[in-house]
Design a protein that fits this description.
The protein has 78 residues and is mostly beta strands. 0% of the residues lie in helices and 83% in strands. The chain is built from no helices and four strands. A hairpin with a 2-residue loop joins strand 3 and strand 4.
Length: 78
């Protein structure tokens, strides 16, 4: 089954350096993916909510010199 991503997305961020850390785990039949982002020398914010590949995804970032972001998606395990 092919699904078209459907998002509401707002973003404006500028960063000198960014890093990401991600992990996945399964609880019963749900697969949960979590991604953390860190920004240095950044200013701005982003936000996203939607459905991609039959998974609900919520994402947010906020920065003022130093910043953090979190992205979580939940869907049925493969």
């Amino acid at each position: 089954m092919i699904s078209t991503p459907s998002y509401v997305n707002i973003s404006a961020i500028a960063s000198l350096h960014s890093e990401k850390v991600e992990g996945k785990f399964t609880i019963f039949v749900l697969q949960i993916s979590v991604e953390g982002t860190g920004h240095i020398g950044a200013v701005g914010a982003t936000g996203k909510i939607g459905v991609d590949q039959c998974k609900l995804k919520v994402e947010g970032n906020a920065s003022a010199l130093l910043g953090v972001g979190v992205s979580v998606s939940v869907g049925l395990a493969d």
